[in-house]
Specification:
Strand content: 35-45%
CATH architecture of the largest domain: 2-Layer Sandwich
Radius of gyration: 16 Å
Order of helices and strands: EHEEEEHEEE
Number of domains: 2
Largest sheet: 4 strands, mixed
CATH topology of the largest domain: Signal recognition particle alu RNA binding heterodimer, srp9/1
Distance between the termini: 35 Å
Structural class: alpha/beta
Helix content: 10-25%
Number of strands: 8
Strand order of the largest sheet: 1-4-3-2
Oligomer: single chain
């Protein structure tokens, strides 16, 4: 049996900036561990080798990519957030989409009372739902 299963986000850069942003947006969130590359290691000194944080109670791992890849984040993977109120959904959507893109604006799409889907400034996709 696997010891654990959790999302792992590989940022082209700015992993620590992103995780601190996420922790500021959601209650019940915290940075648990940040290990940085040091001189002589494969990554750029001071960038994130591995970080562990929780967002809304969900444990997430992340890193700054050592190698440039021909891929980045895609909405095929997204965080699905169940909001407690309309106000929370609107606040979180507005905060996450700042500098990012809207995939589906806040609205009633028939499958929930209120829903939005955005990519944040780091390219990570978020579905926000109320009801």
């Amino acid at each position: 049996m696997a010891k654990s299963v959790r999302p792992f986000l590989m940022f082209p850069s700015k992993a620590e900036e992103a995780l601190r942003f996420y922790v500021s947006v959601f209650p019940r969130s915290e940075v648990t561990e940040v290990r940085r590359y040091v001189k002589g290691e494969q990554g750029v000194e001071g960038t994130v080798m591995k970080a562990l944080f929780s967002v809304g109670g969900q444990s997430v791992l992340c890193t700054d990519a050592v190698v440039k890849h021909a891929f980045t984040f895609t909405p095929a993977f997204s965080f699905f957030v169940e909001c407690d109120s309309v106000e929370e959904l609107k606040r979180v959507t507005e905060t996450l989409v700042s500098g990012g893109t809207t995939l589906m604006p806040v609205g009633d799409y028939g499958f929930s009372k209120l829903f939005a889907w955005v990519n944040d400034r780091y390219g990570v996709s978020w579905q926000l739902n109320f009801g």
